[in-house]
Amino acid sequence: MKLLIMGPPGAGKGTQAKILAQKFSLVHLSTGDILRNEIDKASSVGLKAQTYMNAGNLVPDDVLLEMMNSTLSRLKDQGVILDGFPRTIPQAEGLSKIFKSLNQVIDGIINIEVDKNVLINRLVERAKKSGRADDTEEVIINRQNVYLELTAPLIEFYKDNLLSINGDGSIEKVTERILTRIQ
Ligand code: ADP
Questions:
Q1: Which terminus in the chain has less CB density within 10 A, N or C?
Q2: How far is the CA of 30 from the centre of ligand 1 (A)?
Q3: Ligand 1 and 16: CB distance under 6 A
């Protein structure tokens, strides 16, 4: 099974992706986590990604596409849930090509929807605990704007296959809403 989970920063997609990965024995591929790990290792990808990420901007598409091409090829016989990728139309187009070359299809695209004010409050709360370099208020607002400009157009791109989920409510409630749509 190949699943995508999308939603604005703070929508809870990482949390839900982890739960779904465990439930369906999928590999959870969070591009944010993968990139942070590359930064910790000071790899060439990490060095390229760092300044973009700290400012709340997107890492260039070619970096992501190369990284996901090799990851998805390596995991070709396993179920995966993609969390944080694709994040732009060129990434979505590139992902179609990757899956085509691997003879695979996307089985489900989950889009978690949450009101913008709820999101900013959640992220400011998370920032107090996370210690992440991109969790300052200014950067949080930039990440929301980047989402609206570059990522939200994916809703139209995937409109025929999108499972829209209301992300307002408890973690369990949101999981339940997702499960009723994908089983
Ligand atoms: P959030 O869900 O709060 O947006 P993530 O951990 O998913 O946080 O991503 C953190 C940062 O990693 C993004 O702001 C961006 O700089 C970078 N990043 C993650 N995925 C991608 C992607 N698909 N394309 C470009 N940049 C990405």
A1: C
A2: 9
A3: no
Distance 62 CA to ligand 1 centre (A): 14
Q: How far is CA 115 from the centre of its chain?
A: 18
Half-sphere exposure of 37 (CA within 13 A, CB side): 7
Q: Which domains does the chain show, CATH number per domain?
A: 2-182 (3.40.50.300)
φ/ψ of residue 81, rounded to 5: -120, 120
Q: Which tokens is 72 given?
A: 């998805």
* Model confidence pLDDT, tens digit, residues 83-107: 999 999 999 999 999 999 999 999 9
Single pTM value for the model: 0.91
Phi, psi of 166 (to 5 degrees): -70, 115
